[in-house]
Amino acid sequence: MAIVDELAALQAETLAAIEAAADTAALDEVRVRTVGKSGTLTAYLRNMGSVPADQKAVVGKAVNAARNAVEEALEARKTALAAAELEASIDAAAVDVTLPGRSQRLGTRHLINRVTEEICDVFLGLGYTVADGPEVETDYYNFTALNAPADHPSRSLQDTFYVVDRSGEAASVRGESDVLLRTQTSGVQVHAMEDQQLPIYIVAPGKVYRRDIADPSHLPQFTQIEGLVVDKGITFGDLKGTLDYLCKAVFGPDRRTRFRAHYFPFTEPSAEVDVSCAVCGGEGCRMCKGTGWLELLGCGMVDPNVLQMSGIDPEEYSGFAFGMGVERAACLKYNVPDLRLLLQGDMRFLRQF
Ligand code: DAH
Fold it and tell me: In principle, which of 31, 146, 265, 319 could form an S-S bond with 302, CB 3.0–4.6 Å?
């Protein structure tokens, strides 16, 4: 039967066109062309009236079957294309997060604080506690109770910042104010001996002030860490062992230390401790001014006078003390040739630590 063959051909052709439709728009065109209002398949349905009566059943069945098959194929293809198009649009809208973002730079603690903490940590590990004292200090704690003679040069106006009391009522020492910016953390020793119970094992970090012009090895304001031990039977051997341990812990096991005899009013005997230069390994270079050694701290056995002035019996107790510059220690550790670099706020320098 000619009509049935035609329908079969149209169905086959339509199904192929559906399969070939590349996107939903193309698919819709096929739909309109075939099962739309004036589509090719619709035309057969419309024309059923002119089909001879004896063929109606067969042709009707064939037309319906063709339409069902086409509609089913259209639906299936539409779902498949819609899913593919959704996926493609998601892909197109995706943001490439594999690019490195603009990250925020994380700040770090300043080298002075880091080294202060590191040194204090070494002593905390040895059972010491951390003490502090006032930066604005009296002459008594900064000098007198530390056995500094009245004519000691550090007491002069050239070396110490004196705080003037405007009321004019401040007591004065040789015409100078009795109140000053401490030149050393050693006064904390006196506060500790007055306030604490024996035995004493303390470190005291803090700022100190001196009338110095800043240069590679001096700063008018810097940080010191004071140490004080007062106990029964403390010897110079305890002092040496403690400071040797400190140097190895802070600067590394390869650095050597040496004790050089020195003078401080509040210790007897007194010494200065040098650490071997890491730049030249002790050979001598510009950093260590050719000596192979860099000065780190002052120390000694607490002078019996100092113990006595703070009410401790030197017959029963002995002690050692030390004081070091933190900026100097930081520069020694990292081979920085100029103390001022620590305070200039140059991020190219600071970011290295
Ligand atoms: N206070 C001294 C200074 O600033 C350093 C010092 C030396 C502290 C010997 C001490 C010490 O405790 O025993 O130069």
Answer: 319
